From TrEMBL, chain A:
Residues 68-221 form the Small ribosomal subunit protein uS7 domain. The lineage of its organism: Eukaryota, Metazoa, Chordata, Craniata, Vertebrata. It comes from the Eukaryota. This is Small ribosomal subunit protein uS7m. It is found in: Mitochondrion. The keyword NADP does not apply. PANTHER family: RIBOSOMAL PROTEIN S7.
Automatic annotation (TrEMBL), chain B:
It comes from the Eukaryota. One of its GO terms (biological process) is apoptotic process. This is Small ribosomal subunit protein mS29. It is found in: Mitochondrion. The keyword Phosphoprotein does not apply. PANTHER family: MITOCHONDRIAL 28S RIBOSOMAL PROTEIN S29, SMALL RIBOSOMAL SUBUNIT PROTEIN MS29. Belongs to the mitochondrion-specific ribosomal protein mS29 family. One of its GO terms (cellular component) is mitochondrial small ribosomal subunit. The lineage of its organism: Eukaryota, Metazoa, Chordata, Craniata, Vertebrata. Pfam families: DAP3. Keywords: Mitochondrion, Ribonucleoprotein, Ribosomal protein, Transit peptide. GO terms for molecular function: structural constituent of ribosome.
Length: 229, 395
């Protein structure tokens, strides 16, 4: 749809220049942040990529948001998690909490690694990013519930969820769990690291919540046909 | 099943690390693996654990501090992040760097009949001044010197929970908590000397308590720890005794006075008197007695000091030169001293630190082990040791 609209529009730049807005004219192209995309020589490009490059020379490009970096250490999933944890726009604090969490996880695992006997060393996962991704995977629910009205009553109907929705639910559960169910004196990064380590081995409160969701879906299996009228 | 996949990925990174080591030594991978295995360790680690035997060829390499030494010598002296690191890695490895090697070589050649020299480590924030001081103090300890280590002079100037008027001199103030804690740590560090050194003067603490002339230093220290009220005066007495006895021909010990954050002694303090006016540094007994020890009156030892902006009060953030941090009065009192600059890591030292962190499995991000990741770490930290530590902590 965007392609057809951009075909109709003539090239134009507005009088008021939009720099940090999130709604752009569909004529604008997405920015390319990765360094590898620019270091490819001419010969390796396929036909579409050559076309893209020529288009980039003519069309205006959206401003890149503050969250994207060309750093080799950037991780889109982790950036999304940071954004969800951010409150009142305090991204610096959210980033600090996450980096302290990763450091904490790494410290605990590396300590265990160095104290473990030779045979057990290979089983201990020390990479905090791998643990985070594993924990997120383990927390993602397979089916979700939707509230569908039929004959005056609302039924909780089990439905398949899209990948984005599953990821969002997993992250939201982790964050709410760590915000609410912790002791007054425990710091956020400490609680987060405990939850992520537990989730990566399928223990802990977030996994329990996911399993409860699955049980509810299984219990309401009879209403599954309410999805379609 | 997920665990098997994870361990497979780990095995891949382990072989990748081994190939990085051998390529770092300039050896072909086709060479016999058995021969090249002990070699990678020598690029960033050295077996020479005695600071007295370390020389320029060990520069940039890590040596292991023996754990009994750490428990006695540094009950409170090491920086907080280093303590965490030695708990995580299960070993304490310090890098041999040029500033501390320089000071150690001067200490080896000192003439103990001349007045003691003052060495000052200065540099940018996070460049390794406290660690250089700890390395030099470790050398003094292994040589059997008596070590008087004040880990941070700034804590005597701020957050004082109890401030008492001094019993000895009406215009001064006591800090019983800090003094008793310092005496406890002094006792742990210098156990053998406590039973050898005898006091030369009679001290009266209250109407009924006094320490006779000729009693052991250990008794004096115990008196200060058990009677917290007079602990600051005990500290003053201990410092006076050691200063008087250190150069004498009959005493066979050498004294090393190590003060971290010496610019606090001439700075401002946040401690307030009852009428809300700030306390001058010279009005505190601990500071007053310590300053007497930093003069060049005594012989038979050395004074090692460090500047510190991080804990200091009312100093600009980017000040690091001696003139800026000590102020006019401090510089005039410390003058003449031997300034030793502590720079950021050189390329070789950075390389060594990077390899050490990979060896200890601290750099876990797969991209951090590539060339691109290394260049990015160099760019972000500018080879500053503490910044590099903070960046690599979350990678």
């Amino acid at each position: 749809m965007a392609a057809s609209i951009s075909g109709l529009l003539k090239p134009w730049t507005p009088r008021v220049f939009l720099v940090r807005w999130s709604r752009y004219n569909p004529y604008y192209l997405e920015p390319e942040v990765r360094k590898e995309a620019y270091s490819k020589p001419e010969a390796e490009l396929s036909a579409e990529e050559k076309e893209q490059r020529e288009l980039k020379a003519l069309r205006p490009i959206k401003a890149a948001t503050n969250g994207v970096t060309s750093s080799v250490f950037s991780d889109p999933v982790l950036s999304k998690f940071v954004n969800m944890m951010m409150m009142d726009g305090n991204k610096i604090l959210a980033n600090e909490i996450i980096s302290k969490t990763l450091e904490n996880i790494k410290r605990k695992q590396v300590e265990k690694y160095h104290k473990a006997p030779e045979g057990k060393k290979e089983e201990i996962e020390c990479n905090p990013y791998a643990i985070f991704h594993q924990a997120l995977e383990n927390c993602k629910p397979v089916v979700g519930l939707a509230s569908i009205q039929k004959g005056g009553k609302f039924y909780q109907v089990p439905i398949p969820l899209s990948d984005d929705r599953r990821r969002h639910l997993a992250m939201k559960w982790i964050i709410t769990e760590c915000r609410e169910n912790k002791h007054r004196r425990t710091l956020m990064y400490e609680k987060l690291s405990q939850e992520l380590l537990a989730a990566s081995v399928r223990e802990g409160n977030v996994i329990k919540k996911k399993l409860e969701m699955h049980k509810m879906a299984e219990a309401n299996r009879a209403y599954a046909h309410y999805r379609w009228t | 099943m997920a665990l098997q996949r994870l361990s497979f990925r780990l095995r891949q990174t382990v072989t990748h690390v081994r190939s990085l080591h051998t390529s770092g030594c300039g050896q072909q991978q086709a060479a016999v693996v058995v021969e090249s295995e002990p070699e990678p360790l020598s690029v960033f680690r050295t077996q020479e654990n005695d600071p007295a035997c370390q020389s320029e060829k060990h520069m940039g390499q890590y040596y292991a501090l023996p754990s009994p030494h750490i428990r006695t010598l540094f009950p409170h002296g090491l920086p907080g992040r280093f303590e965490q690191q030695l708990k995580t890695f299960n070993e304490a490895c310090m890098m041999v760097r040029k500033p501390s090697l320089e000071v150690i070589s001067y200490l080896k050649k000192t003439d103990f009949s001349k007045p003691s020299l003052r060495y000052l480590f200065y540099g940018l924030a996070g460049s390794g001044k406290t660690m250089s001081l700890c390395h030099t103090v470790h050398f003094c300890y292994t040589q059997g010197w008596l070590v008087l280590h004040i880990p941070d002079a700034h804590i005597w100037m701020k957050n004082c929970k109890e401030l008492m008027p001094s019993s000895y001199n009406e215009s001064r103030f006591d800090q019983p908590l800090q003094a008793s804690e310092w005496l406890r740590n002094f006792r742990i560090t210098n156990e053998p000397f406590l039973s050898k050194i005898k006091t030369k003067q009679r001290y009266v603490w209250t109407k009924r308590e006094f320490t006779e002339e000729g009693s052991l230093l250990g008794q004096l220290v115990d008196q200060g720890i058990s009677r917290v009220k007079s602990s600051s005066d005990v500290v003053g007495a201990v410092l006076k005794e050691l200063r008087l006895q250190s150069g004498q021909p009959e005493s066979d010990f050498r004294m090393a006075v190590a003060v971290d954050g010496v610019n606090a002694l001439w700075g401002r303090s946040t401690i307030k008197k009852k009428d809300k006016s700030p306390v001058e540094p010279d009005e505190l007994t601990l500071v007053y007695n310590l300053k007497k020890l930093l003069t060049k009156d005594w012989t038979g030892g050395a004074i090692l000091t460090t500047l510190s902006q991080t804990g200091s009060l009312y100093t600009p953030k980017f000040a690091y030169l001696p003139q800026e941090l000590l102020g006019k009065r401090g510089f005039d009192s410390m003058d003449p001293f031997i300034p030793v600059s502590v720079p950021n890591y050189s390329e070789k030292e950075f390389e060594s630190c990077y390899l050490y962190l990979i060896d200890r499995h601290w750099l876990q991000h797969p991209q951090s082990r590539t060339e691109e990741g290394k260049k990015e770490i160099i760019f972000l930290s500018n080879r500053n040791p503490s910044m590099m530590d903070r960046i690599c902590a979350s990678l």
